[in-house]
Batch of 3 targets.
Target 1
Amino acid sequence: MAPAAPRFKVAIVDDHERSRAALRAAIWAAGGEVSVEVTRRADALAAVTKAAPDVAVIAVGLADGDGVEAAAEIIEKARCPVVLFTSRTKDDLVHRAREAGVIAFLLKPLRAAEVAPTLEIAIARFRESAKLAQALEERKVIERAKGLLMSRLGLSEDDAFRRLRRAAMDGRRPMVEVAQALLVSESLAQGEPARK
């Protein structure tokens, strides 16, 4: 029988061995897996990108840099949700963390019972946010294609939308793909680079 998949895969970025050990034990006890441990901020992005965990837990204070800055970089470039691990929750830290895109906090001293729910909620919220951002981007592409049809063919907004929808149904493709193809073909005809 094959071993069960871990509940979640976690990257730990913390330069204190005791903190890492407590986190590691709590993650394993919750059925998770530690995919990578890093002690330096300078190594964090590369390690998290390579390990591709479900979530990263990052200590606020790192010997070689700021954990909030590391979190912002990992969220943006590795597309990974981050939970900050800290003993303090002053307003300025919470504000900086929110601006960086941090999903949640785990407080020191660690209470093992809080680890699984905190990580699972962080993972779920990050995925929901990513889906919403993707849906918004797709909607913008469809709106641009609809506007192109309206101006080129003199269609109403409803007629342009129906035409895109019909083309998507006939081709058995998502409407956003049809809209992208239309925008690419228009940009080629105009000799301009296509925008997504």
Note: The helical segments are 17-29, 41-51, 67-78, 91-100, 112-153, 157-171, 175-190.
Target 2
Amino acid sequence: MKITVFPTVEEMSSAVAETAAEILRTAIREKGRAAFIAATGASQFGFLQHLTAAPGIAWERITMFHLDEYLGMPADHPGSFRRYLRERLTGKVPLGAVHFIAGDAPDLAAEIRRLNATLAETPVDAAFVGIGENGHLAFNDPPADFTTEMPFIVVPLDEACRRQQMGEGWFKTLDDVPRLAISMSIKQILKAANILCTVPDRRKATAVQACLEGEVSPLFPASILRTHPRCHLFLDPGSASLLSPSTRGA
């Protein structure tokens, strides 16, 4: 894992976008196509703003997969991740294919089968992810399932995760936050050729420290990123504030 700490969130976001854009350009140049996994949440705001403005990306040759979505959530709800991505990504660039998770699909099993089949046919060049305040990766809250081979799974959301969603302003009360979600699994995320993990903010510092300096464990789901051969973790001074000097310089 490569770890880089940037002086400001703006510099961090710009650097992640520059790295992501080059991965996509290279994939298109070498294979004629590219595919990536998109995360949501406050950590991705600046990154997506810079990425959608990056020059020289043939967006029409790119496929986007959606990382996670609340179960039963309408696509137009303010907390919906489909709405988030439409407003910040898919509505700004002409992607060749977009595979959203329909969390409110009338036949949930059929929706998961559709997602799994589509993803199985498409090599993923990059996963753009973050780390939750509880150490989650996507909506794989602790203790996460490190063993399932299913690309998408239904997962329960713990209280820490739900409080984070409320704290970021997506919901008015804790009771408004759904208790279940569809999430890409840990093993599926790790199949991406590159993983770019963006983690700003002091409120993420405890999770970052646990995931980087503790054991690789389902109790700290994002710790599994340390096993990926091409994972780059982007931090700001706040999120890196509890790391030892040796970890920060890794």
Note: The beta strands are 2-5, 34-38, 62-66, 68-70, 97-99, 126-129, 152-156, 180-184, 194-199, 231-235.
Target 3
Amino acid sequence: MQRAEKDAQVKDIRSRFDRMSSAVFLDFTGMTVEQVTKMREAFRAKGIEYKVVKNTLVQKALADQKWIGKLDDTLRGMTGIAWSFEEPSAAARLLKDLTKDNEKLKIKGGVLEGDVLTAKAVEEQLATLPNKDEMRARFLAQLHAPLTSFVRLLNAPAREFVGVLAAKQRKDEG
């Protein structure tokens, strides 16, 4: 690989890490071409960028980051990186599902906003974060709840008054 080619790859890797909301490192040793192709298609469908990288190029690209030293164990052997740009949990959630179907695919670790995560943390914490739509729904429910309660309180006296009038009418008729 020529020097200019390496420099271009280092810049590409760095730009992806600068734009990402999270990244998940994985080991795909022993997977067939068909399995890797299906995995890539699944990533593409979810808007996740995936690339097989040389560990030394990742180390060069992230040399100025304080947390790069924590990735030393992660950046050993074959490494693929799945970058999520919109939803931090998208890549982790998809990889967690893919590892259930393929025992050869292994999560090595991850990065979320400058924090290095272990493989266990990626699977148990990052992959379980709600997606954007779920968070929006929860937020709207939180905003909606006090207003709903307020409207019920305002309607309660009128509802009770109607109930009293209905009871009076039943008494007069019966």
Note: Residues 130-174 form one domain.
